[in-house]
Amino acid sequence: MTRGPWHVAVLMGGWSAERPVSLSSGEGVAKALESRGHTVTRIDMDRNVAARLAEAKADVIFNALHGVPGEDGTVQGMMDLMGLTYTHSGLATSVIAIDKQLTKQALVPHGIPMPGGHIVSSESLFTADPLPRPYVLKPVNEGSSVGVAIVTAEGNYGNPIARDSVGPWQDFPELLAEPYIRGRELTTAVLGDEALLVTELRPKSGFYDFDAKYTDGMTEHVCPADLPPEITKACKAIALRAHQLLGCKGASRADFRWDDTQGIEGLFLLEVNTQPGMTPLSLVPEQAAKLGIDYATLVETIVEEALTRAGGGTDG
């Protein structure tokens, strides 16, 4: 297949907590495609999104949405019903990967190392801890570290957690409780059937939360990460295997914690992001650039994969 010119509808925005990130991703994608001579229709998702997608009559939809409902299978199912071609993962993969507990059920039986833990009601937290401290509480189906709390013995949430303390228990009726894994934050991008590099993320303060991810200067990216060769190899192998087991398409990103006092036994996959960010601070474009793949080429590669998978496309 030749690279266009195509008519691409870039779907972005929406109403999740990650709306600002999605708008940044989408605008970057749109400008990159326009710079390569493609026609772009920008669609900021609202409740009339189906009608707007139908009116666009694009060759392909670039799904630049993050979070619910753009990353959890809802929008994918709608586009499947409409017979539209779109980038990134499909309905079933999106349903599983957005849900951290379902992801564990899909991957752990195949030998993918992930933290233990279980789902708890937020109400129960005000009576007793679900795990020994320190432990992590996170929403089951949010990305970008939205609503993550690290509960420590020295923390100010109270013991047990106080009902009026600020945390995800105020916004979500259920949370996933996991043991806290000390150590280093690592991430690996997968593009197509290739794991790219490993990046270490070093927040200047606190942990790698939503603000640290998307505020310039708050996190140092070490790419490629300075790691023992066996850890680099394991991250790339696990990221690619998880991408394949879940049925991911286009690009994905696997996030890890590594307790460097435990060697390979201290490496755990935390989650797989099926629609990783494409902002100026995002990790997939950064890893691609280190391998000589510029941003516009990365975007075109993701679009071309979707068109090839659909068996269509416009030759120019």
UniProtKB/TrEMBL annotation:
The keyword RNA-binding does not apply. InterPro entries: ATP-grasp (IPR011761), ATP_grasp_subdomain_1 (IPR013815), D-Ala_lig_Van_CS (IPR000291), D_ala_D_ala (IPR005905), Dala_Dala_lig_C (IPR011095), Dala_Dala_lig_N (IPR011127), PreATP-grasp_dom_sf (IPR016185). Mg(2+) 2 binds at residues 271, 273. Its EC number is 6.3.2.4. Pathway: Cell wall biogenesis; peptidoglycan biosynthesis. Residues 104-304 form the ATP-grasp domain. One of its GO terms (molecular function) is D-alanine-D-alanine ligase activity. Belongs to the D-alanine--D-alanine ligase family. This is D-alanine--D-alanine ligase. It comes from Sphingobium psychrophilum.
